[in-house]
Amino acid sequence: MISEAGTPQKSPIERATTLPQGRPSPAGSPRNRHTQTSSSNLHLSQDSSTKGQLANEDPAVVTHEQFKAALRMVVDQGDPRTLLENYVKIGEGSTGIVCIAREKHSGRQVAVKMMDLRKQQRRELLFNEVVIMRDYQHVNVVEMYKSYLVGEELWVLMEFLQGGALTDIVSQIRLNEEQIATVCESVLQALAYLHSQGVIHRDIKSDSILLTLDGRVKLSDFGFCAQISKDVPKRKSLVGTPYWMAPEVISRAPYTTEVDIWSLGIMVIEMVDGEPPYFSDSPVQAMKRLRDNSPPKLKNSHKTSPVLRDFLERMLTRDPLERATAQELLDHPFLLQTGLPECLVPLIQQYRKRTSTC
């Protein structure tokens, strides 16, 4: 991640509901470098159309106590420490930690994000994440159970997905077209729902896709979401992860839900090639190439079917108005190859077997 001051940092809470961090990437892979951008590191301003929305106000205007008071209005009441036991830390970042814990009353394992409010570069993103996950539920979206204020920390209790993140799989294992279609269909179902509610995810990538052990696919990482409406129909913030950013985001043009479709197209390239385009470039150089060049192509195009290539072209179209919507893509012939969730289980098992022998 890049801080407000432009200083490189570790991502605060990456892939919060996955298995423990620290898994090795393939030799020579720069995957640990991909840099989330949600700040003025390129000397760009915030959304210009967010007047009156607390989640998008200039953080300098809102005091720490005012922000806590606003959070109290959207989180649950009570102390989660009385409800949970057997904490096991599975991740740590610059602004908090992630644990697995067990609910005393049910025995269910949950993932718990514990985020220090005083260390947040953009506090409004925490507000966004809580509100979006509270208000919008879908079978292909990671479920948030509860959220609490605990002293100076925000605790978010979420479902724990033991299958891990898609990024772990694509960096080591090639997916076949049935598996690619199955992942895409689930993600598009989630996006079609969110977009119908005026929600832009703004950080679609393989890291944001989590799997259950039985192969179900869920969208996560809602900290960069934005809400659009009749009053605020478009956004302009530079938000997302550089290698997956749509050209209009990088160009600072007004944008809407179409940016998620471009990012999904880049994720399809990940599933075919193992990494996004320009991944050996610096984030800034990759952004320049995405902004100025023709849409990126598959390195292994010769190994894919014409229908997959057409599916990808419908997403990686520079003109947002010509780009397919999530609902349109759900009707694309490529998704006729969609299988049952079980078709993804061998990928999970193969990855877990590889990492257990490392």
UniProtKB/TrEMBL annotation:
Region (Disordered): 1-56
A biological-process GO annotation: neuron projection extension
PROSITE patterns, A to Z: PROTEIN_KINASE_ATP (PS00107), PROTEIN_KINASE_DOM (PS50011)
Polar residues bias locations: 1-10
EC number, UniProt record: 2.7.11.1
Key words of the record: ATP-binding, Nucleotide-binding
GO cellular component, one term: nucleoplasm
Domain of life where this protein originates: Eukaryota
Residues annotated for ATP binding in this entry: 113
GO molecular function: ATP binding; protein serine/threonine kinase activity
Domain Protein kinase: 84-335
CDD domains: STKc_PAK6
Keyword ATP-binding listed: yes
Biased composition regions of type Low complexity, renumbered to the chain: 38-49
Record-given protein name: non-specific serine/threonine protein kinase
Originating species: Gopherus evgoodei
